[in-house]
Structures are given as structure tokens and as C-alpha cells.
Amino acid sequence: MALDERKMTATEARLAAMQVPEVGCTKEAREAALERVRRMGLPGRRDEYWKYTRPDSLVQVAAPRAAVFDAGEEPMFSAFDRLRVVFVDGVFSPELSDDLSLEGVQIDRLEDICCTNDHWAEDLYGVLEARGQSPVERPLAALNTAYAGDGVAIRVTGRVSKPINLTYVHKSEQSDVLLHHVIRVEPGAEATILENGPAAARFNKCMEIDIADGGRLHLVRAQGRDHERRAYTSLFARLGAKATFKSFTLTVNGVLTRNEAVVEFTGGDAVAHVAGACAGDGNFHHDDTVFITHDAVGCESRQVFKKVLRNGATGVFQGKILVKEGAQKTDGYQISQSLLLDEDSQFFAKPELEIYADDVACSHGSTSGAIDEEALFYLRSRGVPAAEAQDLLTLAFIAEAVDEIEDKAIAEDILGRVQGWLARRR
Amino acid sequence: MLEIKNLHVKLEEEDKQILKGVNLTVEPGRVHAIMGPNGSGKSTLSYVLAGRDGYEVTEGSATLDGKDLLEMEPEERAAAGIFLAFQYPVEIPGVGNMTFLRTAVNAQRKARGQKELSAADFLKLVREKAKTLKIDADMLKRPVNVGFSGGEKKRNEILQMAMLEPRMCILDETDSGLDVDAMKLVAEGVNALRSPDRGFLVITHYQRLLDHIQPDVVHIMADGRIVKTGGPELALEVEHNGYADILAEVQ
Q1: By its UniProt entry, which InterPro entries does this protein fall under (chain A) (predicted)?
Q2: What is the pTM of this model?
């Protein structure tokens, strides 16, 4: 089917304004990605997959301005011993970053691998993104592969002693950033990756994660408190046998955020949990779009998403579990819930299950509701002031998602940040 | 201490009059029991005193130590010394029992201008009180009332009462859903809190709770009013003859 003309025009206008960065071994992958973008066209308002989220500001040529916001607090994760990899408006900053050598892991800048041939990342860059384009197209991810200006390649070969913290600093009101990371976890290796910061006025980030048999990766991200920023992130994870992938994302503020996660099980008995919590006040639109493909026996997937919305904030959840023929003993679970703190806020949910195997356990649930008045009165009758009681119940609501973080100290830090966010809005 | 005068209350949504002129005074150190048939307004009275939404006071007053309760928010009433042990304690998934207790204790201390309890002092206090109510560490760790048995929920109410040390305790059908052993445990918890400066209002259907918590005064409530007041013997009379005789007599 030919693309409609308007879409084609928008796509070509955007591409004309993009600059291809220095390319080395990723050249072919970038060219192929550009082909994909041209074929698919960038998302338009009439695309089914963008029914609840308007892609206009992510697609248009110039990034809308976004004021830089000083949160006035210690950056996320600063309480933890971690290896810092810092990007300022999408450019790696050696001054702000730690020495990248750490036992059990090899970290290279995308720029460096682009100049080397035969880098391991060559077999991964753009590969999982390309696989993830079917059955649903994700043109903004392909755009990222084609034009990403920076990023890191992380190869985990052992048990890494401390988390690798990717920090994205937003400095310019007009920064328009595309970052692309590739991560390979070798058999039996394990690492934790933390991500934080708003990154840019407009941010398009792609992360491709390949976890070999028995590998484990924990990903915890906090998307920064800048109110005006826009972000589209995509995550493509492929899991081998007995591999584990656990991801949690916290989003507070931001006018527009869409986080896509595409997970594919290719070996048996693997586990993938994708979770997120967001809190939005006013001009806030948050979209979690998840696609999990079970193509192996005995794998477990969990999606847990919680949204706290007020003053006309909007939440979207599109989550799908696809169980292919032969993926017996699949255990799939999906829950998406929103807590609407007033009558102006909205939540759209599209949970989907598509199952071609007959011996599976899949369940899904989606709810949206207000604060439980009974519980609120109970707390108040014990002397807890109304605002504090409401915060306590709100935190309890998102706790199920935050509980997906294995490291309890990090989970507590995340809850503390949300508590602060709520307290500032009393 | 607790003074209720000519209290008239209706349901906000249904425009239905529930309390039709309740008069009641509870003195410090005394235990008052309110008995009455279903629908007589007993639970409404307890909710109105605690400040639950959905009720409209159309006439009358309720004061604690001279302070107008009806003007206060629920949390202000709690800080002033009102405690309602719920007939159906609410389950709060995601909020740990310990966090809940500590938040409540410290919120009240703060409201009264007292210093908040340190984590260590709080822990010591809660362990000590929990022990006498046979509440184990696991129950303290679990989310508030979630997965608790009927007896556990009621014991948890009494634990909160013990921690908060209110001036005026209102027990709404605390015996419902309890077996004999659980009722004894709960009653012991309540009796341990009896003191010369604390008042109790025990609402119950049945006399059996009053075997364990000896009241000083017994009121019979019917159709939104207190229709008869007497000593502990009144509860026995109800037990033997039911409410019908008394209601017939007052009418």
C-alpha cells in the first residue's frame, strides 16, 4: 500500500533535515534502517499504533523548545556506587564520566566502534530493531538506527560489581538528540544498568539488548523531571535460554513520553519483567507500549504498569503478549492500572493477548479508578492528615510496579522520589 | 467528656433520617455500652463521631472535652482523642502495617505538638503492645489488614488503639466475626486500656461481649434514639428477652 502523500512529505522533510554521522562498521545497518524509514514512513496521526498518542511533535522537523529544569535535588542514583557514563545533550562527556574500565564489562563509545571494523557490536547494531519492526512497525526506532549520533556498546562478560549509570543531561532548550546503545550480555554474565535524566528537548533513544543463555540484566531508569521535554524511547530485548531481563522505568513530568519495549524469547525458561510507574500533573502525556513475543517453551513474562494522573494528565498503555505456536508452558501476566486523582485526567488502555499454543497461562487486567475513599477515611480516622493519607495510598498504588526492582535500596530511592513529587503538589 | 446533645443525622444521598435526637454523656473512666437492633443507628452514631463523609448533621451537637467535634476533620478528631475501632477494618494493599502505625502515631504526636517517636522507640513500643495482643512480627509486616482473619483484623484495631492512647474509644461491633477465644483476647486488650481518664463507648448487638468488657452504663438504641438507659442488668435483660419487650415497653 502506498503511503499517503502527507506522510511521505513529512517523512522526507524530516530526513532532509537530518545529518548522517561518521559511520564505520554500522554503515550498512544505518543504510538499511534508512530504507525501512522510507518504506514505512514516520508515524502519523491516523496510524492505529498511534491512536492514543499524537506523534506530530516527535516527527516534525524541528524539536519544540523545552526549558531546562533544575530539579534542585541530588541527581538520581547519586547515593549509589556506580560507574557514570554521561551524555550532555546527547554527546558523550569524558569529563563528567568515570573511567570506563570495569571488570566484567567492556564499554565502548558508538563513535569508536564506528571507526573499527569487526567490532562485536556490528552484529547487533540495528539487528534487533529490524526484527522488532514486525508485526508492528516502529519507524522512529529505525530513524534512530539510521541517524543516532552517539551511544555506547556495552558487553557484559562477567558479574559486574557495580551498576553502570547512563546519565542524560539536558542543557540546551533546542537540543534534538538521538542516542543508540547496544548491550550484549554473555552467557551467565550479569549487570545492572541505570539510566537517568531528561537528555534533551526532544529525545529519541534506542536500546538493543541481547542476553545470551543464562545471562541477567537489570535495567532501572528515571526519565528526568523536565516539564517540557519530549521523549520517544525504544527497547528491543532478545533473551536466550534461562536468561533474565528486568526493567523498570519511572517517569514524572514531561509533556510527551512514549516508551516502547519489544521483548522476544528465543530460548526456553527465560524470564522478562517490564514494569513502569509514572506520575503526571497537567500537561503530561505518557504512553507505555509493550510487545512481548513468546517463541520458546516455559518462559515467564510480566508487565506491570502504574500511572498516577492529575489535572488533565493522560496515560496510555498498549501491551501485547504474543504466544507463538509451540511456546508451551508460557506464563504471561500483564497488569496496567491508573489512579486518576481528579475527573479531568484520562487513561487509555489496549491490552492484547494473541495465543497460538494450547498449554499456556496468560492473564491480563486493566483498571482505572480514584483514591479508595474507605481507605482514606480509615487513615484519617487514625490521625493521618488527608494529604498525607492520599500520598500514602498513591505510593501504595505504584508499589507493585516499583517492587519489580530487585535491588531494594534502589526501589526505596525511587519511591522516595515519587513521595517528594507528591508532597510538592499538595 | 463526650457529650452528645439532641443529635439528628440524615444520610446525605438518600435524604433519610437515621439519628433522631441522640442524647448521651460519657464520663472519663466509664464504659458505656449501646445495644440495639439492626438499623437502629448505632453504627451511624459511631461514624458521625469519627467524621465519615456521607452524613449530614441537621440538629444537635457532639463535643469532646468541650470542643465541637462536628466542626473537625477526621484527623483532627483523632488528634483530639477520638478513636473508632471499625466493625469492618479496611484493607489497604501496599501499605505495611508498621508504616501505617508509625505514620498514625507520629501524625497525632505532631498535631499535639509532641516530638515524633524515633524508629527505635516506636519499634520497642509496638513490639511490646503487639505481644500482649498476640500479634506476631509477620502481622506487623504485612499490608494493613490484607489477608488478615476476622480475629486478626479486630486485634489489629485494638493494637492501633493501644498505640494511639485515645481519650475516647468507640468500639463498633468489635465482637462481630470473632470466636470465643478471639473475643477474650480483644476484651483483654480493651480492659488493659481502661483508665480513670479514658472513656469507652461499646456498640454491640449481643450481651456476650459485655461479659468480658464490663460496662458501667447500658443504653438501648432504637429508631435513631436512646430509648432506655440502665446498668449492666439491662444487657442481661436483652439477652434473655430480646429487644421486643423493651421496645414495646418504651412505646
Answers
A1: Fe-S_cluster_assembly_SufBD, SUF_FeS_clus_asmbl_SufBD_core, SUF_FeS_clus_asmbl_SufBD_sf, SUF_FeS_clus_asmbl_SufD
A2: 0.92
Q: Say if the Cβ atoms of B160 and A380 lie within 8 Å.
A: no
Phi-psi region of B240 (alpha: psi -120 to 50; beta: other; left: phi over 0): alpha
Give the per-residue pLDDT at A140. Answer: 98
Q: In this complex, which of B73, B77, B103 lies closest to A392 when CB atoms are compared?
A: B103
Shortest distance, CA B196 to any CA of chain A (angstroms): 22
**ipTM surpasses cut 0.90:** yes
Domain spans of chain A, in order of start = 5-376
pLDDT at A116: 67
Question: Cα distance from B20 to chain A (closest Cα, Å)?
Answer: 24
Nearest CA in chain A to B75: A383
The region, left, alpha or beta by phi > 0 then psi within -120 to 50, assigned to residue A312 is: left
Closest Cα in chain B, distance from residue A249 (Å)? 19
Q: Give the residue among A152, A220, A219, A214 at the shortest CA–CA distance from A185.
A: A214
Per-position b or e across A5-30, b if 16+ CB within 10 A of its CB: eebeebbeebbeebeebeeebbeebb
Q: Which three cell numbers stand for residue B77?
A: 478528631
pLDDT band at A110 (very low <50, low <70, confident <90, very high): confident
CA dist B118 and B113 (Å) reads: 15
DSSP class of residue B116? P
Distance (Å) of CA B201 to CA A78, B5, B66, B148:
53, 16, 18, 25
Query: Could you tell me the residue ranges of all domains in chain B?
Result: 2-249
**B81 within 8 A of B166, measured Cβ to Cβ:** yes
Judged against a pLDDT cut of 80, whether residue B161 lies above it is answered with: yes
Q: Is A384 on the interface with B (CB under 8 A)?
A: yes
> In the structure, what pLDDT confidence band is assigned to residue B239 with cuts at 50, 70 and 90?
confident
Tell me what the mean pLDDT of segment B73-80 comes to: 96
Is A382 an 8 Å CB contact of chain B? Answer: yes
Could you tell me if A375 lies within 8 Å of chain B, comparing CB atoms?
Answer: yes
Which tens digit of pLDDT belongs to each residue from B187-206? Answer: 998 999 999 999 999 999 88
Q: Which CATH superfamily is domain B2-249 in?
A: P-loop containing nucleotide triphosphate hydrolases (3.40.50.300)
Instruction: Give the N- to C-terminal CA distance of chain B in Å, as an integer.
Output: 30
For A70-97, write each residue's pLDDT tens digit: 888 888 999 999 999 999 999 999 999 9
Q: What interhelical angle do B119-132 and B180-193 show, nearest 10?
A: 130
